[in-house]
Predict the structure.
Amino acid sequence: MEEILEEKNEVMKNEVVENNATLVDEKGFVVENKPMDLPEKEEMKPFCEKKCNLAHWIVDGLLAAAVVTLFILHFTGGNKKPQVVQKPVEVGTGEVVFINIDSVNEHYEMVKILKDTLEAEQQKQELVFKNRQKALENKAANFEKNYSSGSLTPQQAQYAQQSLQEESARLQADYSNFMEDFQSRYAAALEQMADSLNSAAKRVNQNYNASYIFTYQSGGQLLYADPAHDITQEVLEELNKSFKKKRK
């Protein structure tokens, strides 16, 4: 019986050696499983090497980028938001100063020039429209006279009446266009003067650092203004000086 077992064991050992797949002990129990070696395919080897090298290159690149990122975060404070440097706001003294608009309108050279120019243009155009209106009224009076005397045929009377109506419509349209353009130019002049006044007031206020600058005008809401806080003269000097430079 023992000879038969030894013979079987010997046969199994030979199979292990041949297959190099299973190992057994002397009693016939399996002690290790080892996969059988398969022949390598030469055509797959270059592709595997290329693919593996590419994978290693990508991983190495990612690791290098991660190291650089950690280095930057370490020396820049990580995810901290950049600090915004705010310019300190200069606090005013709390003083209140004012400007007399009546004096500005009277002594500011640009105001006088614009006012004179616009008034001259208005008077000129008013005279033109007045003459056109008078001529139209004379034509209407002649038409009434001729129509009453019966010197006009019905066709002539109809034609004359239609002509007077068309001329009156043109006169009204021209006058409306002139007034619209004049008001637009006047508004632009006021805006230009307001911008100049604001700029001059800011430059003068550099000497005062006042917190408030009011304008004073006769008949306005401000009933009284302390002359000690009146900067009108300084603003006027700044306005006229700047206007003279622009005219050169």
Remarks:
- Helices lie at 2-19, 45-76, 101-107, 109-149, 154-205, 232-247.
- Confidence is low (pLDDT under 50) at residues 11-78, 84-89.
- The longest strand covers residues 96-100.
- Residues 105 and 111 are 6 Å apart (CA to CA).
